[in-house]
């Protein structure tokens, strides 16, 4: 009989963690405070699985761009200063990482994690049929309005050459003129005059994260070593002889041999109750899910408008539009002004793509580290492990980070360098 593990968090990171631990031989129980899985940041996120397009927010020039964004009516960034030292600590650490060297280092790590995640997701899709969560792999188009930004991105793509530009392997990177981008994706008709160019990456996918979580939850319940899901609040830890021996919850203390924090931004406070300071801050994002009707010109390819920081993904019979980074603390409520801004952006970019009048709005708190890399692995507190801080790429990296954590907990060698992904 395997060791018992409690995973705190029933979003996509927590559920994938539970699955890979079950497969590694552990007995697993999940604690989730909501009535159903994927009720937080996993509920209506952008839906893009961008394994090869990883663009950490911290980069050279971002501080100056941020000042410009803050002055824009429909800018992608909002900042509400708080009397919370965690906000200012995170911002200071973020600014220190806004340089080319740090960005390149983080990007290299995330590309390795992306390939690991692609492989792990393919293994899961052998058990969860792709049509259960609207999975498709139409590729990804990143649009650039500024000629200089497009030239910089094109030079970076040529330098990386992963794979070779023009190589026809189904995942090739292609540099496109505005006209070529329109021919590849007719839904760009209204945007095409404003474009300087685009970069297409084949093989990138889209899917419904919530539907994936619901299917994965059913799969967990069918596993012989799964000890079920508890619905309650986590309050803190019971520590004896320097080790975590129980999780204090609204349902009473829950004992196990190991504990994994995968509870989104809630992980920050729970870690603090074990004496750990996690460099996490909630990046509040928004989305619209608009029905696609017969005759609508919805994009087939996953599209990211680089300067507007807005993505468009056709997920089943819905168009998902997601955007924005609001640094406003733990305020989950939808800001109607931001939704109105997102609606204006979508209508201007793709006016005939969906039934915007019946779009459903959502907002979520995405727990991010200053450099954009998640934190995976052990803590200084024995028996307490982390799988947190994935920011806007939780769906993309969930399967890979879960498989890595399971290997680390077993003491097995892991396939990628972990120096930048562990608790620093």
Automatic annotation (TrEMBL):
InterPro entries: FAD-dep_OxRdtase (IPR006076), FAD/NAD-bd_sf (IPR036188). It holds the Pfam family DAO. Keywords: Oxidoreductase. One of its GO terms (cellular component) is cytoplasm. Residues 4-406 form the FAD dependent oxidoreductase domain. GO terms for molecular function: D-amino-acid dehydrogenase activity. Belongs to the DadA oxidoreductase family. This is D-amino acid dehydrogenase. The lineage of its organism: Bacteria, Pseudomonadati, Pseudomonadota, Betaproteobacteria, Burkholderiales.
């Amino acid at each position: 009989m395997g060791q018992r593990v409690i995973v705190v968090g029933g979003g996509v990171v927590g559920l994938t963690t539970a699955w890979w631990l079950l497969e590694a031989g552990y007995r697993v129980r999940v604690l989730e405070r909501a009535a159903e899985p994927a009720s937080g940041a996993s509920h209506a996120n952008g839906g893009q699985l961008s394994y090869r397009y990883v663009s950490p927010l911290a980069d050279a020039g971002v501080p100056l761009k941020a000042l410009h964004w803050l002055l824009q009516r429909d800018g992608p960034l909002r900042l509400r200063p708080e009397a919370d030292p965690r906000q200012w600590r995170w911002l200071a650490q973020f600014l220190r990482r806004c340089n080319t060297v740090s960005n390149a280092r983080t990007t290299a790590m995330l590309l390795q994690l992306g390939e690991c995640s692609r492989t792990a997701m393919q293994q899961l899709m052998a058990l969860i049929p792709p049509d259960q969560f609207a999975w498709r792999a139409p590729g990804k188009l990143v649009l650039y309005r500024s000629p200089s930004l497009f030239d910089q991105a094109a030079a970076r793509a040529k330098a990386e050459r992963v794979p070779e530009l023009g190589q026809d392997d189904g995942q090739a990177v292609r540099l496109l003129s505005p006209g070529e981008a329109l021919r590849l994706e007719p839904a760009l008709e209204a945007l095409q005059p404003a474009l300087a160019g685009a970069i297409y990456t084949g093989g990138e996918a889209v899917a419904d994260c919530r539907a994936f979580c619901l299917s994965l939850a059913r799969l967990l319940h069918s596993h012989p070593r799964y000890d079920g899901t508890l619905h309650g609040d986590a309050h803190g830890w019971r520590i004896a002889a320097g080790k975590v021996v129980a999780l204090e919850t609204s349902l009473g203390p829950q004992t196990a041999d190991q504990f994994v924090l995968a509870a989104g931004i809630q992980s920050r406070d729970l870690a603090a109750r074990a004496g750990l300071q996690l460099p996490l801050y909630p990046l509040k994002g928004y989305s619209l899910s608009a029905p696609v009707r017969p005759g609508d010109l919805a994009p087939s390819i996953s599209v990211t408008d680089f300067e507007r920081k807005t993505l468009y993904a056709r997920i089943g019979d819905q168009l998902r539009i997601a955007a924005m980074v609001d640094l406003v603390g733990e305020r989950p409520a939808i800001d109607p002004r931001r939704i109105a801004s997102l609606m204006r952006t979508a209508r201007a970019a793709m006016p005939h793509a969906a039934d915007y009048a019946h779009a459903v709005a959502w907002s979520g708190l995405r727990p991010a580290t200053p450099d954009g890399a998640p934190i995976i692995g052990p803590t200084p507190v024995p028996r307490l492990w982390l799988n947190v801080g994935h920011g806007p790429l939780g769906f993309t990296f969930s399967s890979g980070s879960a498989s890595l954590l399971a290997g680390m907990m077993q003491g097995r060698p892991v396939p990628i360098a972990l120096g930048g992904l562990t608790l620093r």
